[in-house]
Amino acid sequence: MESSRKIRVVVAKPGLDGHDRGAKIIARALRDAGMEVIYTGLHQTPEQIAATVIQEDADAVGLSILSGAHMTLVPKVVQLLREQGVEDVVVTVGGTIPADDAPELKKLGIAEVFTPGSSTDEIVDFIRDAIEERRTLAAQAS
Amino acid sequence: MAIEPEAKRRAHQWREEVYSAQPERDALFETISGQPIEPLYDAESLAGWDADRELGLPGEYPYTRGVYPSMYRGGLWTMRQFAGFGTAEETNERFRYLLDHGQTGLSTAFDMPTLMGLDSSDGRSLGEVGVEGVAVDTLDDMIDLFAGIPLDKVTTSMTINAPAAILLAFYVCAAEEQRIPPEALGGTIQTDILKEYIAQKEWCFPIEPAMRLVTDMIEWCTEHMPRWHPISISGYHIREAGSTAQQELAFTLKDGFTYVEEAVARGLDVDDFAPRLSFFFNAHIDFFEEIAKYRAARRIWAREMSETYGAKRPESLRMRFHTQTAGVSLTAQQPLLNIVRTAIEALAGVLGGTQSLHTNSYDEALALPTEEAVRIALRTQQVIAHETGVTNTIDPLGGSYFVESLTDDMERAAYEYFARIDELGGMVEAIKRGFPQREIADASFRYQQEVDSRRRVVVGVNEYKLEDEERLELHRPDPAVERKQGDRLQRTRGARDSAAVEAALANLKAAAATEGENLMPHFLDAARARASEGEMIAALQEVFGRYTEQPVF
């Protein structure tokens, strides 16, 4: 039986990057799709993001980064979540991510990388499907 | 414009009987800003329009046709490509490459730590040093950035806002090292902090002290740097954040009026500083809307500066601007198409009468441009300038039924926004209440919905897609830069007189806490002592505090 708890998503802006157009659109689309959205605002350290994810008991976190610093900041967020025992959060990344970096990010555990041109529907559907899949697996395991 | 009654009747008949019998494509006949466009514009579209009042002549009030009498017949726009990455030495090399290839002015991109007032050694700078632009921590970096480039012969633009006064101090001192006095320096520093709170989001302080710094710069430059533009009042970033063309126009101009009011409140004579105010607009893909926007901007600015702010000198009334083609219009898919988009956008800027132009490179949806890509971008401007014939005459689209209608519409829309902002208590108050931010968020969401639903086609992205995209060779940030810059900063810190730095920072803090004290001389002292940008900003934050945004989405 599927959990009817609302999906909770943190939309986060790591680092100094101030480009928030995409993050805000995604946040709004996720909210319109019936999810609980926590938008962290700008200039978040990886520590702040991990703390928010845990505090908010989030199912997913979307990291939006257009400054080119993704290969430093994204692994840090993932590492912090792991260290604090948060294994089952769906982590997605969006922004100015060259295609060549996506495989490495996925190896770290990033569920999907959304590059420029991705539609909001695509992103909303992915997050919803990924969380429902995890919930189903968790229910089966228990 | 007078219309013959018979011609009017025939036009109506054409519309009702001939045109309406034609099938229309299933497409959106709206600008990307959402303005519906008529199938035809004619004399009736300009009923009541007076060319003499609305246009004037080139170089004359209200400057609709251009700010100079001869425009591009007299001199082409400055080809000014934004550049910057890595350390000062690497960017110096790119500057020289661009100058060698025919660029006529420099434009500096700083990295995120520099833009945010942080030293490269700050913990928050990790992963960001030299990535989005050049790392500048101290005067030593600025000196190396312009090594071998005669600052009295080349004009430089610097895109920096919250810490602008510091970077200006670095630039003035770097010129000093070249034995060039401030009054010989020509160029621009962006400085426009209001648009940061609205759109670009690079801040260090709360709004009021940040505005004080802007006025300090305008005041100091009015006295010491008559060839310099202490501010570039910008719409580019507002547009990139997702605003409509109308919002870009209105918010930019309103920001401009706010700076004028602050400077006048400081006691400056509008005719002393207004001639050195400059502007910066986006050139987006909806061709005619952009041209109308620039023409309306000039007309509105001239009128307001004259009638509302009492400026008398012609130089105070004419709006000069830089243009950059729209970064947000670039696609990661089939990126060579971006050359086409950029060319069309650049053409709009030229037909709109820009004084200076940056054209984006085709690979910039994903990275900073490679040398080849930026060369093509520069050549795009050169093709427009030398091959197309559009520079043969001034304001070629003047008198066009369509363009003049759009220009009028654009102006009307701007005044509507001015009224709404005034109702809220002015631009600073409007920003505090999140008004422009919300307008932008709404506009960007609407546009995204149009694209997602494929009502609006973006070639290669939601239509005409390619299954197997070619992989581009992209510029990659050099991972060694962080260490290299760290070493540079270490060397400067090691060589300087720490007591002198401490004293300079203490003076800066004391001046910051003193009302009516212009901080520029203190920035210059601190710069010469080799205080770092981060140290100066941190000192000021102790006095001014910081800014936290209440995000609206």
Describe this structure in a few short sentences.
Chain A is α/β, with parallel strands linked by helices. Chain A contains five helices and five strands. The model of chain A has no long low-confidence stretch (mean pLDDT 94).
The CATH level-2 architecture of chain A is identified as 3-Layer(aba) Sandwich
Q: Could you give the distance between the termini of chain A?
A: 12 Å
Which percent range describes the beta-strand content of chain B? 5-15%
Specify Rg of chain B, calculated over alpha carbons. Answer: 24 Å
CATH superfamily of chain A: Cobalamin-binding domain
Named CATH topology of chain A: Rossmann fold
Can you give the helix content of chain B as a percent range? 40-55%
Largest beta-sheet details of chain A? 5 strands, parallel
Average of the residue pLDDT scores of chain A: 94
How many helices of chain B does DSSP assign?
23
Sheet/helix structural class of chain A: alpha/beta
Main beta sheet strand tally, sense and closure of chain B: 5 strands, parallel
Gross geometry of chain B: globular
Low-pLDDT parts of chain A are none
What's the count of strands of chain B? 10
Distance between termini of chain B? 44 Å
Can you tell me the CATH class of the largest domain in chain B?
Alpha Beta
Query: Total strand count of chain A, please?
Result: 5
Overall structural domain count of chain B:
2
Helix content of chain A: 40-55%
**Total domain count of chain A:** 1
